[in-house]
Amino acid sequence: MLVDTHCHLDAAEFDADRAEVAEAAAHAGVGLIVVPSVERANFGAVASVCREYSCCLAAYGIHPMYVERAREADLDALRETVVREHPLAVGEIGLDRFVDSRDDARQEFYFNAQLQIARDAGLPVLLHVRRAIDPVLKQLRRCRVPGGIAHAFNGSRQQAEEFVKLGFKLGFGGGMTFPRASRIRELAATLPLDAIVLETDAPDMSPEWMAPPAPSAAAGAASDAVVDGRPRALAARNTPDQLPRIAHTLAGLRGITVQAVAEATTANATAVLPGLARIH
Ligand SMILES: [Zn+2]
Q1: How far is the CA of 228 from the centre of ligand 1 (A)?
Q2: Could you give the C-alpha distances from 228 to 36, 62, 78, 92, in angstroms and in order?
Q3: Ligand 1 center to residue 201 CA distance, Å?
Q4: How far is the centre of ligand 1, averaged over its atoms, from the C-alpha of 202 (Å)?
Q5: Rounded distance between C-alpha atoms, residue 61 and residue 74, angstroms
Q6: What is the CATH classification number for the domain harbouring 29?
């Protein structure tokens, strides 16, 4: 069995065929799907997807790309939701210094407040980190949560080791399927296997076999369909049933069997997100 540790199954992209997408994932051997929230307004959608599909488990949090329209009352709502729902984790939360129009102080305020909520509840966190690994590590050292996952990890070996020291696993997905992603592939091949979990980040981060030819810089800049910080319109919709093929890529990079990858990454996901054991 595989665990998709990051999949936005509540996203509007799945409104037309969510049941088929969930069914295809189950059929492909993806037994558990972690569904993170991005803002208070979608806590309800995440909760209802997780009620409807027993393979789905919720995390609640405010994504750094959504803090601009967040209010402090949303933090109270998050705290209440965490107490009431006992979610798998707080997430996805973090820092994103990729886009120009951003408010770093505001992102740090919400990130830190949510780390405190996770710490107080004894919950792990799901991290979104773009061009901000060192500031995220600094906050994690200040507010010790019981580990979590650095989703779509794209840093250095030393940064990977720092996350591991703080009790985190590193999420690998579609990014490592691109031959030109040499740094991510090198890490996926050589980091200790017990540091790695798998994810699709569907509907985003389509793997190499689903992606159209690389867009030109001009096309990227012109796209206004940026969701979760990425230009969705430029790639085919990713789905959680792609996880076995992503696992196959990891097995190939490491020179081990898919079975070994499945066993290790599922054990790693359960170790860092103990709530998974409640239903599996
Ligand atoms: Zn995400």
Answers
A1: 7
A2: 12, 11, 19, 11
A3: 6
A4: 8
A5: 9
A6: 3.20.20.140
CA of 128 to the centre of ligand 1 (A): 7
Ligand 1 centroid to Cα of residue 260, in Å, is 26
Interior/surface letters 95-123, b for 16+ CB within 10 angstroms, e for the rest: bbbeeeebeeeebbebbebbbebbeebeb
Expressed in angstroms and rounded, the spacing between residue 264 Cα and the centre of ligand 1 is: 23
Instruction: Output the CA 152–ligand 1 centroid distance in Å.
Output: 9
pLDDT value at residue 213: 62
pTM for this entry = 0.92
Interatomic CA distance for residues 50 and 41, integer angstroms: 16
Residue 166, domain extent: 2-278
CA distance 49 to 245: 24
What is the 91 CA–ligand 1 centroid distance (Å)? 9
Cβ(247)–Cβ(2) under 8 Å?
Answer: yes
Euclidean distance between CA atoms 260 and 156, whole angstroms = 25
Give the pLDDT confidence score for residue 224 in this predicted structure: 42
Show the low-confidence residues of the chain (pLDDT under 70): 212-235, 280
Instruction: Name the domain count of the chain.
Output: 1
pLDDT tens track for 3-57: 999 999 999 999 999 999 999 999 999 999 999 999 999 999 999 999 999 999 9
